[in-house]
Automatic annotation (TrEMBL):
Homology family: Belongs to the peptidase S9A family.
Domain (Peptidase S9A N-terminal): residue spans on this chain: 134-440
Molecular function (Gene Ontology), one example: serine-type endopeptidase activity
One GO BP annotation of this record: proteolysis
Protein name: Prolyl endopeptidase
One CC-aspect GO term: Golgi apparatus
Record-listed E.C. numbers: 3.4.21.-
Keywords: Cytoplasm, Hydrolase, Protease, Serine protease
Role played: Serine peptidase whose precise substrate specificity remains unclear. Does not cleave peptides after a arginine or lysine residue. Regulates trans-Golgi network morphology and sorting by regulating the membrane binding of the AP-1 complex. May play a role in the regulation of synaptic vesicle exocytosis.
Organism expressing this protein natively: Climacteris rufus (rufous treecreeper)
Enzyme's top EC category: hydrolase
């Protein structure tokens, strides 16, 4: 399924800068006028991380401190004692929280049983349109329940398909399929398999046939593409960093060699094949800047050629058609995406299309004579069809309920139809097709169920502190009466230029059926209204996201959607920053807060350069080590730093013991400090009848920072 560009556009960081001693990449003089570029393009993969960007920073040595004359330098013995003390404190805190959870969990046993039964019932309903398909001529490949199926294009909708293989047959029963790539001649298939307890995947290469043969297993692979029938390029991931590109062959003289290495810790490397399979692109991106190198698929053993050297603040992606490069770049004003057409080694370039203000480019796909762009504006999804011949544009507004889309893989750029799926948190994926010949949108006929047809979608705009209008998407049951008495679950993220996760979840549909109101606040810092929406909510603008969230919740209450005593706030990963900050500044707006693997200790985390993500994350949060103003600003909103004795809402936090992105120690300290502050306030005001909030931490031994299987999600 094609979602790569979407994640790239949302801010994955990557980078590239190694050239082997013998194969120096050549510079391709593309366009001198477009000096700044960055990023990459559409990729037919299903990235499992949806809560936070994948790229990491490098591990740097500890900072050196100068000592005044007479000052004592800590001895190694004292340092070791300090480390041991810290480890002991961590273990004691962890043990205390685990004991607390074991005491509390039985209270929810009956509720857990009821919810689990209801979710299983919803999961088994026949309203899912199935997995996205990969189409190769007459053949269609798709994955379901750990099995790869092959069907003929005419039979796929009739349910006639053969099993190619299952991951259980390969001996990987505890893993799930993350990405699939098929060689141009369909002789080989490369798949990445990932377990729930790690962010690193393995790549398995199979030789297809009556009985598939496992040719090779490559550990710690992030992305991979076929440059030719038997030549595979891939990137490796280590400590959340992806900086090396390798090439491996499978026929004749089998060999593997390093092709490319990125030196800048802020950049992360990914690879992608252009739609016409003429070039393989090596994309090196940070959160704000990118650089692209091209490998000619007709000569896959030649050195990569540079498209345009990285320029700070400029992102670009590259596609190819009819001996022209189509470059999607943020160069120029406004700093949103523009489509540029250029020739090789020529300075002339032509503007094909520019996004309107406050419009998000979600994804795009190239075909023979058309380019499809999926856009988001004021919460609505649009499909724009751009003629690559006449440069005319047709804009189609997609159904109001649609919040997420997933582009199906179209390996052949000559296809006359574009297939994709639309969904929302309460609408299961539904398949659509746009026909270039008929020039119309075709919706797959499915039998609707009452739970879904009774769900109402409302879009609102809240006025923030600086008068900026902030979009809100609201779902509730049409038959619900007295909405001000209904429970409200508010969702927020607001970081890295990534949209709130609004894909379908059975638990969201269950809440609607039980009378809940769901609200999604698209605050600044996220990417819902383009790149400027992200810039207005990162680094020294982080507080704008907090102001946006406050305005959204207050508007919901004002319009009669629930009230503070029935309102809960949910966030995951970096969304924990704004949720935790609101909990400190406006605890009276909510009664409960639910956090999943939350980032709640920004200041201390950004002060530790030995953590894998710190350097790369400076583009999002700033660098408090070198900028005192930045340090003070982070301290002004950091959830951990601003806990104080007051009446807090109840809090439930889930963390994963082996999470590589969110240090467990920081969450443990946050929970301890929050509980202490809440108890201190309660002890001072007990005579006033103030309640004592439940502050619960569940530490899961298994699981990781990424989305997991249905079974794991159900248990959670």
């Amino acid at each position: 399924c094609c979602v790569g560009l979407r994640h790239l556009l949302q801010g994955l960081s990557f980078g590239v800068k190694y050239y082997s001693k013998h194969n120096h990449p050549q510079t391709m003089c593309l366009y001198s006028k477009i000096k700044p570029p960055k990023c990459h393009i559409l990729d037919c993969s299903e990235t499992t991380c949806t809560h936070r960007t994948a790229p990491p920073g490098s591990i740097l040595p500890w900072r050196f401190f100068s000592c005044k004359k007479g000052a004592k330098v800590p001895s190694k013995r004292k340092q070791n004692t300090s480390i041991l003390t810290s480890d002991l404190l961590h273990k004691n805190l962890l043990k205390s929280e685990q004991e607390n959870w074991n005491d509390i969990a039985p209270i929810y046993k009956a509720m857990t049983k009821r919810i689990k039964e209801k979710l299983e019932e919803l999961h088994n309903m026949e309203f899912n349109s199935g997995s996205p398909r990969m189409r190769f001529g007459e053949n269609v490949y798709f994955e379901e329940n750990g099995c790869i199926f092959l069907s003929k294009a005419d039979d796929v909708d009739e349910g006639n398909a053969d099993i190619v293989f299952s991951i259980e047959d390969l001996g990987f029963s505890d893993a799930f399929i993350q990405r699939i790539r098929i060689s141009p001649d369909q002789r080989y298939m490369a798949i990445s398999l990932k377990s729930e307890n790690s962010e690193e995947a393995i790549c398995v290469i199979l030789k297809l046939g009556y009985i598939p043969v496992m040719e090779k297993v490559i550990p710690s692979v992030f992305s991979f593409e076929w440059a030719a029938n038997d030549v595979l390029y891939y990137t490796t991931q280590k400590n959340l960093k992806c900086q090396n590109v390798f090439m491996t062959t499978f026929t004749y003289q089998k060999h593997t060699k390093l092709v490319y290495t990125e030196q800048d810790a802020r950049f992360f490397v990914d690879i992608y094949c252009t739609k016409d399979r003429r070039f393989l692109t090596i994309n090196s991106n940070s959160k704000t800047t990118s650089e692209v190198w091209l490998v000619d698929c007709r000569q896959p053993f030649e050195s990569p050629a540079l498209v345009q050297a990285r320029t700070t603040g400029v992102i670009y992606h590259v596609e190819h058609r009819n001996d022209h490069l189509y470059i999607l770049t943020t160069h120029g004003e406004p700093a949103e995406y523009k489509a540029i057409l250029t020739d090789y080694c020529k300075e002339n370039w032509q503007l094909v299309y520019a996004l309107e203000k406050k419009t998000k480019l979600v994804d795009f796909e190239m075909f023979s004579n058309e380019c499809i762009m999926f856009l988001k504006n004021a919460g609505h999804l649009y499909l724009n069809v751009i003629s690559l011949v006449s440069h005319s544009v047709q804009s189609i507004k997609l159904p109001t309920w649609a919040c997420e889309f997933e582009l199906e893989s179209h390996p052949e750029h000559t296809s006359s139809t574009c297939y994709f799926q639309l969904s929302s948190p309460v609408h299961p994926p539904k398949r659509f097709a746009y026909s270039f010949k008929e020039n119309n949108l075709i919706e797959q006929a499915v039998q609707e169920v009452p739970i879904i047809t009774n769900c109402h979608t409302t879009r609102l705009l809240a006025k923030s502190k600086d008068e900026t209008l902030v979009p809100i998407t609201v779902f509730h049951n049409k038959n619900s009466k007295e909405l001000h008495r209904r429970p409200l679950l508010v969702h927020v993220y607001g970081a890295y230029g990534i949209d709130l996760n609004m894909s379908f979840k059975e638990e969201k549909l269950m809440l609607i059926e039980e009378g809940w109101i769901l609200a999604y606040c698209h605050v600044r810092g996220g990417g819902e209204q383009g790149l400027s929406w992200h810039r207005d909510g990162c680094q020294h603008n982080k507080l704008k996201g907090l102001h946006d969230l406050r305005a959204c919740i207050m508007l919901l209450h004002k319009l009669g959607f629930s009230q503070p005593k029935h309102t809960a706030l949910a966030a995951a990963s970096a969304g924990g920053v704004l949720a935790g900050a609101l909990c400190n500044t406006d605890p009276g707006l909510i009664r409960a807060m639910v956090l999943q693997a939350p980032f709640v200790d920004v200041l201390n985390t950004m002060m530790k350069t030995d953590l894998p993500l710190t350097i790369e994350e400076q583009e999002e949060w700033g660098n408090p080590l070198e900028d005192e103003r930045c340090m003070k600003y982070i301290k002004s909103y950091c959830p951990y730093q601003n806990i104080k004795p007051q009446c807090y809402p109840s809090v439930f936090i889930t963390v994963y013991e082996n999470d590589e992105r969110i240090p467990l120690t920081g969450v443990l300290k946050y929970v301890q400090k929050l509980r202490k502050a809440a108890l201190h306030h309660a002890s001072r005001t007990r005579e006033k009848g103030n309640w004592i909030p439940n502050i619960i931490l569940e530490v899961q031994a298994n699981g990781s920072h990424c989305d997991s299987s249905w079974e794991h999600s159900l248990n959670e």
